[in-house]
Amino acid sequence: AQKITQTQPGMFVQEKEAVTLDCTYDTSDPSYGLFWYKQPSSGEMIFLIYQGSYDQQNATEGRYSLNFQKARKSANLVISASQLGDSAMYFCAMRGLYSGGGADGLTFGKGTHLIIQP
Amino acid sequence: DTGVSQDPRHKITKRGQNVTFRCDPISEHNRLYWYRQTLGQGPEFLTYFQNEAQLEKSRLLSDRFSAERPKGSFSTLEIQRTEQGDSAMYLCASSYQDSQSSGANVLTFGAGSRLTVL
Known about the structure:
Structural class of chain B: mainly beta
Order of helices and strands of chain B: EEEEEEEEEEE
Helix content of chain A: under 10%
Number of strands of chain A: 12
Largest sheet of chain A: 6 strands, mixed
Oligomer: heterodimer
Largest sheet of chain B: 7 strands, mixed
Shape of chain A: globular
Strand content of chain B: over 45%
Number of strands of chain B: 11
Helix content of chain B: under 10%
Strand content of chain A: over 45%
Radius of gyration of chain A: 14 Å
Largest interface: A-B, 28 and 34 residues
Distance between the termini of chain A: 41 Å
Distance between the termini of chain B: 36 Å
């Protein structure tokens, strides 16, 4: 079984500041993948960034980076230089990886509502 | 490619009625997923298909729910005898994965079908 915990229901951040969204996870799988998705008010889930448990370096995608601390089982999302368009729900998710390409569905956290203020 | 399409976007029905949602995935994607998202929660996995085969079903998928993916293209999710507790956003996602794919298996989501049961 897998579990994702996002402890920040909501956050207010000033435009252009950096923001860190917290995510901790629990799993018995030896290998796993961690994902962050953004969900604006339109409802569509937008993929942001992926980190494999076996990756040696933290993932980065443009203004997004993932602060992966395996021993602490945390996978925090860092958004640099926040913009008004970053206002949305943000979800951390994970799936176990195992031989055979099994495709367990993603397990999502409850999300963090990020509001960027001008 | 227009991404993952879902229809209808909104559905209001009376308790006890049947409803059907349709999902058209990205054409080259062989995997299709259904998720349910209730207010204030992250998406919950319901079921997934690889081509036309339904490979996994969550225990959340009661006997009133049935999903199909004939010919491995579009998929339908039917809910029979709807209950007020079925009110939620139903999200469809697709991905491509073969035996050589990495564990990332990034899912592309549609905008969802919002169901309201009165």
